[in-house]
Amino acid sequence: MTGTSTGSIAFRTFTIDDYDALISLWREAGLPCRVAGRDRKDRIERELQHGVGRMILAENSGRLIGAVLATHDGRKGWINRLAVLPAWRRKGLGRLLVEQAETWLRGEGLGIFTCLIEEGNDASMMFFSELGYVKHKDIFYFSKRLYPDV
């Protein structure tokens, strides 16, 4: 996917030239950013060069208004870093971004899509439930961080 359009919203694939606008979007949307760690420009560029991830951007009149990162491990697809500017929320943009991500993941041969949502983020839990995602109470997420910003 290089670009598609829905009404006044255009979808396209992220390029590294979009990095500063993406970080601004994440901050304005309230997503935590670790620009000294895993969200560093060179790390995002390297991650997307591996071919197992695609950052999809939504624009209106050339302004970045939303983004989602779709990744996979060859078996399972992941919806990551969904961000929509506050002024564009509750207008269907998040749903369209997830649909774009799922379409790309299906094209990669995947049939299961997942996301991780932090406890207390009830709005995201409700949003993904409305999209047909199921909350599992019997799966526990473990992580090991080599340093705080990774």
Structure notes:
Helices cover 29% and strands 25% of the residues. By secondary structure, the protein is α+β, with helices and mostly antiparallel strands. The chain has a single domain (3-130), classed as Aminopeptidase (3-Layer(aba) Sandwich). Strands 1-2-3-4-5-6 form a six-stranded mixed sheet, sandwiched between helices.
Question: How are the elements arranged and paired?
Answer:
Layout: E1 3-6, E2 9-13, H1 19-29, H2 41-49, E3 53-60, E4 63-72, E5 77-84, H3 93-107, E6 113-114, H4 122-130
Parallel strand pairs: 5-6
Antiparallel strand pairs: 1-2, 2-3, 3-4, 4-5
Keywords:
globular; 150 residues; single chain; Aminopeptidase; 29% helix; alpha+beta; 4 helices; 6-stranded mixed sheet; 6 strands
Short description:
With 150 residues, the chain is an alpha+beta fold. The protein is 29% helix and 25% strand.
**Coarse morphology:** globular
What is the total tally of β strands? 6
- What's the number of structural domains? 1
Mean pLDDT: 92
- The ordered string of helix (H) and strand (E) elements is EEHHEEEHEH
Largest pleated sheet:
6 strands, mixed
Low-confidence residue ranges: none
Order of neighbouring strands in the sheet with most strands: 1-2-3-4-5-6
